[in-house]
Specification:
mainly alpha
Length: 104
């Protein structure tokens, strides 16, 4: 049985805020409606993750989403520089010899 509550709550929310929601004006001004953008992103994500034979964990899917957002916002070069530097620090930690005193 399908739960009818979420759609009912959504309609109630739209009715309660009808004075603030003017889709006709937004469409006439060629402004995007957020739900359409979100639906498009969800459809694109589903197409990417729903490949036959693939198995995604939540952390893996989230990592993919973050990476796609970084690329979409043209921030990949800055991200990659940060990633390489962080990985270098992880693999080659600073020597702690300066913390020791000679006792001889």
């Amino acid at each position: 049985m399908i739960n009818a509550r979420p759609p009912t709550k959504a309609c109630q929310c739209l009715n309660n805020n009808a004075d603030f929601v003017h889709y006709d004006r937004a469409l006439a001004a060629a402004r995007p409606i957020a739900s359409g953008v979100i639906e498009g992103a969800a459809r694109h994500l589903t197409d990417r993750l729903d490949i036959t034979g693939s198995r995604w964990s939540v952390p893996g899917a989230e990592a993919l989403l973050i990476l796609r957002a970084v690329i979409s916002n043209d921030d990949f070069p800055a991200y990659w520089n940060f990633h390489v530097q962080a990985e270098h620090r992880r693999l080659h930690p600073a020597a702690d010899q300066a913390n020791y005193k000679l006792t001889a």
